[in-house]
Amino acid sequence: MAGYRATPNRGGYTVSKWGVRGMSKAAALEFGGTGVRVNTILPGYIDTPILANRRERMHSEANWSGLGVQRLGEPADISAMAVFLASDESQYCTGADFVVDGGASLGYFIPLQDNR
Fold it and tell me: Which CATH class is domain 11-100?
């Protein structure tokens, strides 16, 4: 989500994500005439090993009211978007950001902080 909205105390991380978005938009313009499509997938909190040390507490203590689907995402949620973007079904999509975050960017989702 740091590629879609600013994240406090993570300036470098946020800048790197925004940089990828900018680079993908430039590439979409540069390669559009060749048939190459360039898009970004912006995942939210996905239940992967990187969340292992926080998973149980996130399920029980996080404020889920600001998250539309009120659960952590699954890797399949992201891979489904990747399959769509690789398919002919998305042939008119380029230079776009596809947010797959369960609605976290719509509200005020408060996950546990890393230092808790």
Answer: alpha beta
Token pair for 5: 């909205």
Residue 75 identity (one-letter amino acid): P
Kindly list the domain boundaries of the chain, sorted by start residue. Answer: 11-100
Q: What is the pTM of this model?
A: 0.82
Q: Which residues have a catalytic role annotated? A: 13
Percentage of the chain beyond pLDDT 70 is: 84
pLDDT band at residue 111 using 50, 70 and 90 as cut-offs = low
| List of residues 6+ apart from 1 with CB closer than 8 A | 7, 42, 43, 44, 45, 101, 104, 105
